[in-house]
Amino acid sequence: MHLNPYGADAVNLAADLANRRPATAEELADRCRAAGLLVERPVTPRDLEQTLALLDAWEDVVDAPGEPERAELVNRLLAAAAAYPRLTDHTGSGWHLHYRDDVQPLGTVLSALIPVGTALHLAGRGMHRLGRCAVHECTTIFADTTRLGRQRYCSHRCANRDAVRRHRARTAQPVTP
């Protein structure tokens, strides 16, 4: 039995969708499928609207100033998507929990999947493990799934760019005796 199909995969999907918002229902469906999500019904413009609204609220979670505020925002998202957990083997890949009703529109699925995944990610790995890149001009969101939990950048490229910037700033300053 799968213990947690919601954690890292769901929060990484949320970050991906928030960083590069889908423009059409078809793009939303394709990106969810590419992330390994089973799309059980045709995806409609209403699903896209619901998902974009969810992503706006989820970004508030990312940008929350502290842990209590972050928890409150996640709890609101969880309450809005409340359904009884249920066991399912709908894909034939093993029994696992769903925190939503069966055979729902994609917008409804994501409205349960993303908050539950975010809550499990934050509770299991640490409330600080969701953020934006430390490079000032980069606003990319990341879910910190590193072993040590000290991720500051969205990518190696941004980390390297910031390291070069810091190095140049140090070497450009005159050395005073």
Biggest β-sheet description = 2 strands, antiparallel
Mean pLDDT: 89
Helix-residue proportion: 40-55%
Q: What structural category arises from helix and sheet content?
A: mainly alpha
Number of helical segments with 4 or more residues: 6
Q: Over the alpha carbons, how many angstroms does the gyration radius reach?
A: 19 Å
Strand content range:
5-15%
Shape: elongated
Stretches where pLDDT is under 50 for at least 5 consecutive residues are: 1-5
Element pattern in H and E: HHHHEEHEEH
Number of strands: 4
N/C terminus separation: 66 Å
With strands numbered from the N-terminus, the spatial order across the biggest sheet is 1-2
What does this structure look like?
This protein is mostly helical. Helices cover 52% and strands 7% of the residues. It has a two-stranded antiparallel sheet with strand order 1-2. Helix 3 (45-62) packs antiparallel against helix 4 and helix 3 (45-62) packs parallel to helix 5 (106-125).
Write out key terms for the chains shown:
single chain; disordered N terminus; 52% helix; 4 strands
Please provide a brief summary of the model.
This protein is mainly alpha-helical and 177 residues long. It is 52% helix and 7% strand. The chain has helices at residues 7-19, 25-34, 45-62, 67-80, 106-125, 156-172, and strands at residues 86-88, 96-98, 130-132, 141-143.
